[in-house]
Amino acid sequence: MEKEKGGMRRSAVAELIKRAAGMAVIPLICYAVMAVACLAVGGRLFPDDNTWFIFFRGLTYVLLLSFGVSINLHTGRFDFSTGAVMLISGVIGAKVAVAASAGPLLMLFVAAVSGCIVAGISGILYITLRLPPMIIGLGMTLILEGVTAIITGGLKPVGFGTDPSFYRFVTTPAAMIPIIVVSLIIMVLLFHYTRFGYDYRALATGQRIAAAAGVRERANALICYLVSGAFLGAAGALSVCSTNGVTPTINFSTIGSMFACFLPLFFSGFIMKFCNKQVAILLGCIGYEFIQIGFGQISFMRAYFTSDVYKVVEAAILVLFLIYLNNEEKIIEFVTLKK
Question: What gap in Å lies between CA 35 and CA 29, rounded to an integer?
Answer without folding.
Answer: 10
